[in-house]
Amino acid sequence: MSPRMSPSEKPALIKPSLTEAQAVELVERLYGLKVSGVQPMPSYIDQNFHILVSENQVTKDHSQSYVLKVMNTGDSEDADLIEAQTRAMIFLSEKGFPTPTPIPTIDGKIMSLETIEQGNECRQHMIRLLTYLPGVPFANLTLDHRMFYKMGRTFAQMDKALHEEFFHPTTQSLHREGFKWGLPYFHLLEEYLPEIEEDKTRSIVKQVLQQFKQKLLPNLSKFRKSIIHGDCNEYNILLAPVDYLADGMTDRSSTTHTQPEFRISAILDFGDLSYGCFVYELAISIMYLMTQSTEPLSVGGHVMAGFESIIPLTEDERDALFLLVLCRFSQSLLIASHSVLLHTENEEYIMVSVRKGWKCLHQLWQLGKEAVERIWFDTARSYQSESG
After folding, report:
1. What pTM was estimated for this model as a whole?
2. SS (H, E, C) 236-289
3. Which of 26, 36, 37, 101 has CB atoms 3.0–4.6 Å from 54's, for a disulfide?
4. Do the Cβ atoms of 188 and 251 come closer than 8 Å?
5. Pairwise pLDDT comparison (259 vs 195), residue with the higher score
6. What angle, 0 to 180 degrees and rounded to 10, lies between the N-to-C axes of helices 278-291 and 145-165?
7. pLDDT tens per residue across span 235-294
């Protein structure tokens, strides 16, 4: 696949449209489990079901709650990519990260390609049954600087583990050239620009695209490479309340906070896993966390401090961070606007974070690189002073 392939040249994908009865049949046939309840779950381009199973001899060693993931037709064709994503989840779970893990089929497979009738057609979809991890999406919570720091630190720990210790023959598939959600291919989305209403936002996105092509695209080789999750958004990271003493908190001021303390209870959706760069993960995380904050401009410094406690940035990476965050906001807006044209019935789900992102993008653009960096870098530096 050419790295300059435009998003419109990719094969069309079809989102699955299984009935609940079909989901039950798959679970019982492939996994030998007796389903007692099934509930559809939201998804962008795949289809997910929350599966409850009744207690019996077969299931006594497992939790009683699962997620059935039915992949879209496009991704289902790339078995190596799905296996690499699944193997990464298994690896991270073994390292102590809260990631879902696959339940093997009756014949011991971690995924199964199934031909499924939908309407008047039969389509092939890759099927996985994953452990269900409880928690609340951080979109539904008000977070403080402690959680922003903790998230930055956890994402860096995850990427560091993947970079240093995760090896599998299928990881070659993670070199996803032309991947529309990959920051190195942001410029390929320029063809979507006319689909945005001609206003201030479109003008900003157009200028961000130009800056990316001029300043970042020729210098991407300067950033350190790693396998990254690439989509730590407000619905892929689930949180659960904890007692700060039980969680081993060392922040001396934590006892004075009235806000409840949270831990990350689940890191979901490895569909954007790819070979990228450490700094991309940080930029993506800052972008999504900004959209959920009442004080978005301060978020970057806390996330950065947590990330750099594990993976300190190089000067080139620090210098690129502001523009990469702008790129991710713009990337999200362009893809969402295009997707709404294709799937108008999904507009509310697709646009949920983008609407908040418009405001953040305007704020960042208005303040400019120097002012925003001063806020972020001073905040990150304050953590070093405290630890010193």
Report:
1. 0.89
2. CEEEEEECCCCCCCCCHHHHHCCCCEEEEEEECCCCCCEEEEHHHHHHHHHHHH
3. 36
4. no
5. 195
6. 150
7. 999 999 986 444 444 443 444 456 678 999 999 999 999 999 999 999 999 999 999 888
